[in-house]
Amino acid sequence: MKYIVILGDGMADYPLEELDGKTPLEYARTPNLDRLARCGEIGMAKTVPDNFPPGSDVANLSVLGYDPVRYYTGRSPLEAAGMGVELGESDLAFRCNLVTLSEDEPYSSKKMQDYSAGDINSSEGAVLIAEVSRILGNEVLRFYPGVGYRHLLVWKDGPLPELFRLTPPHDIPGREIDRFLPRGEKGKDILALMEKSSAILSCHPLNEKRRSEGLNPANSIWLWGQGKKPRLDSFHSKYGLSGAVISAVDLIKGLGVCASLEVIEVPGATGKIETNYAGKVSAALQALREGMDFVFLHIEAPDEAGHQGELETKIKAIEEIDAKVVGEIQRGLDAFPSYKILALTDHPTPLSLRTHTREAVPFCLHKKGDGLRNPDLIFSEKAAAGRLYFDPAWKLMDYFIAR
After folding, report:
1. Among residues 176, 209, 227, which one ends one of the domains?
2. If phi over 0 gives left and psi between -120 and 50 gives alpha, with beta otherwise, what is residue 296?
3. Do 369 and 335 share a structural domain?
């Protein structure tokens, strides 16, 4: 038996007036997902437990079959693992975004104009993080370049994570940052780094160039997602399956590393709508042909569109996942004598809020040989409600493997 999970990050949403009361997932043309829903089983899963932050870290941990109550230690340690940064037992990791803040006010009065600094590319991001590291880094505080706007700070022998109250920048688009600046017993130390970074980056020649080209400057770092090194049981020890993860995002790669899954790199996989869908599909099918039992295939594009508030882009991302991933994966799997597909999202990223929420999300399960069960179904939040329901969602993986 071959198993594949296809996850469209942030696909779920709320009904929208401009779509005649439909969600983007309900409105989008998704014949392949609809076919899976009609021939398999469909339902909802609560991927984010109450009292946990509604992030991709918690949600994807649940989807992979790990109880966040037991295993979750913070987002940044998972990203560190995906970047190949080894954490000591007492080290504290932080996600380090390059962001665009408004430029004329005192720091606390600025607004969060863009959590991704104009979707800055990795090479320019690395230049700016290197400059921040040169001035602010030392033996205790170490900065590491990542992908695009996503970078890492490691505090050697750092304080306890609960001594900080930090806010993800994608939660506050267009808002004044004062109420969302670092709080807690050690929050002032993180705030000082952010304020100093703004003075360094605002006048950097690369940012002057970006302004002249009409691009958002990456004029501050923003620190959040703190946590210590996690301890996950291996996926193989839980399910007896060899497996791999395919994603453009360090967080998901890090989950794979921590679960002792192979991380497969795909050239041109970006985490945006302009990604190498065909390369991801090819890599997934090749891994299964070469003996892997399980592949977790993650696509980030709908989530990015949700954070940016881009309705047309989100619909396009959903339709491209359906056509270029779900349809091609199913065609490729037909060569195997037996397989199962789990297609789902991890959390809603509603366009009206431009951030994550913790409502349950739709999923569908399909096994080779399943016949037509529900001829009128489409894959959507509304269609999945009132059917199978998993709370907590980490039990869905048990059901998927055992079904």
Report:
1. 227
2. beta
3. yes
Kindly list the distances between the CA atom of residue 47 and the CA atoms of 72, 236, 346, in Å, as whole numbers in the listed order.
13, 21, 7
User: Which of these three, 187, 211, 227, is where a domain ends?
Assistant: 227
Which residue in this structure is represented by tokens 């359906």?
A: 322
196, two tokens: 């100093």
390: which residues sit within 8 A by CB, 6+ positions away?
43, 44, 45, 46, 396, 399
Question: 268 is in which domain, residue-wise?
Answer: 2-72+232-402
For residue 320, give Cα distances in angstroms to 28, 162, 272, 380: 10, 40, 12, 16
| Banded model confidence at residue 376, pLDDT cuts 50, 70, 90 | confident
Residue 403: is its pLDDT beyond 80? Answer: no
Residue 77 placed within a domain: no
The residues, any chain, with a CB within 8 Å of residue 222's CB and separated by 6 or more, are 96, 97, 98, 99, 115, 169, 194
Q: How many helices (H) and strands (E) does the chain have?
A: 16, 13
CA-to-CA distance for 390 and 383, rounded, in angstroms? 15
Average pLDDT score, the chain: 96
Find all residues with CB under 8 Å of 205, minimum gap 6, and list them: none
Q: Is 202 found in the same domain as 341?
A: no
The pLDDT of residue 127 is above 90: yes
For 35, the enclosing helix (H) or strand (E) is helix 31-39
Q: Which helix (H) or strand (E) holds 400?
A: helix 394-402
Q: Which amino acid is at 41?
A: E
Same domain, 16 and 97: no
Length of the chain: 403
d(C-alpha 11, C-alpha 25), whole Å: 7
Q: What is the pLDDT of residues 76-101, one digit of tens each?
A: 999 999 999 999 999 999 999 999 99
Written as one letter, the residue type at 241 is L
- Does one domain contain both 221 and 237? no
Residues 250 and 354 in one domain: yes
Checking DSSP bridges between strand 92-101 and strand 150-155, what pairing results, if any? Answer: antiparallel
pTM score of the predicted model: 0.91
Read off the pLDDT band of 104 (50, 70, 90): confident
Residues 52 and 17 in one domain: yes
